[in-house]
Amino acid sequence: MATQEQLEVRALAREFAKGEIRPQAEAWDAERALDPTILAKVAELGFMGMLIPERYQGLDLDLVTYLTALEEISWGDASVALSVAIQNGPVAGLLLRRGAEEQRERWLPELAAGEVLGAFALSEPEAGSDASSLETRAESVQGGWRLSGTKRWVTNGDRADLVVVFARTRPDSQGADGVGAFLVDRGADGYRVGRRERTLGLRASETVEVHLDGVRVPDEAVVGDPTRGFQYAMESVILGRIGVAAQALGIAQAAYEHAAEYAVEREQFGRAIADFGAIREKVAGMATRIHGARALTHQAGGELQRLREEGRVRGNGFPSPNALAAMAKLTASEAAMWVADEAVQIFGGYGYMRDYPAEKLMRDAKGPEIYEGTNEIMRHVIAREAIREVKEARGG
What we know:
The protein has helices at about 5-30, 40-45, 65-75, 80-100, 100-115, 230-265, 275-310, 320-345, 360-365, 375-395, and strands at about 120, 135-140, 145-155, 160-170, 180-185, 190-195, 205-220, 220-225, 265-270, 270. By secondary structure, the chain is of the alpha+beta class. The chain folds into 3 domains: about 5-115, Acyl-CoA dehydrogenase/oxidase, N-terminal domain (Butyryl-Coa Dehydrogenase, subunit A, domain 1, Orthogonal Bundle); about 120-225, Beta Barrel (Butyryl-CoA Dehydrogenase, subunit A, domain 2); about 230-395, Butyryl-CoA Dehydrogenase, subunit A, domain 3 (Up-down Bundle). A 4-stranded mixed β-sheet has the order 1-4-5-8. The chain is globular. The model has no long low-confidence stretch (mean pLDDT about 95).
């Protein structure tokens, strides 16, 4: 059952999404750009720092309340929610868990206030699903490091003020070993934005290629151990995947509401199409999948919250937080795609037209099935964690 705080935050986020985000979503999609003021308005509500503690000027919400707000923002427009999720999850989360106190004091208050926008640069042209094969190099130089390489699919990479870059700190290392996490100022010499991707959905989100041409950063820019950055990235991905599930839920809920309203209003053969059994079956399936995915997403968030409060990384038994996050992302994203497809079908010919919202939501729904790890990778993660649990139980 939702707490009073969760209900209040959900209501606030829905009101904001309804008044400030949704009316502009169609135009943003067509123009492939967000209103430059929208994230500042999100920040005014404190939603750019939902998981940041109060001592760093954040809201210090629990994970389930955060997921609730993120879903409502995505209900308004998923492109906005993606930027909010990156800010709260991988960027701020990495600093909170692994950053030095000086780094937290320097960056977290500005991230919470929306004065600084964050980006997360892990993937590369040849290191997508297999992110551990990254080739970007960090060469140790006097007083710091020199970064060289290319990053791909960096959301906010062209407008972020703070970019978390992962690079190999040991020339002879392979896989997850010898990778560091670096805090890079987008204005640094050698930081160059390449092409912007032309995406199927979330068209207002600015996803770019980033070239690092000998970018110099000081030693103070290294987060934690300079050889354990990949581990830190994977820790961040757990929260990131649960956030993707919440984004998918917002898309699914929007598609469901539009379709149900249209079914009640649209008449054929002398009555509302909502009275036909085929449409009722679709509506029932949509509602059921959304509520099931939401329950799993909130379970994943609640479990991760509990373990963090206890100071632990893994729980006892299966599913682990890693597996739960993968389950939530897999289930919610596939629910969103299915619900959006059914919404288009309920709208019929109008659903295929850009004059109605269903086709945009269907395009947006595809994204969560791919980013933060494809759903094929999610199945791999779930199976790997389940098999690990069996082996551990057998003493293997």
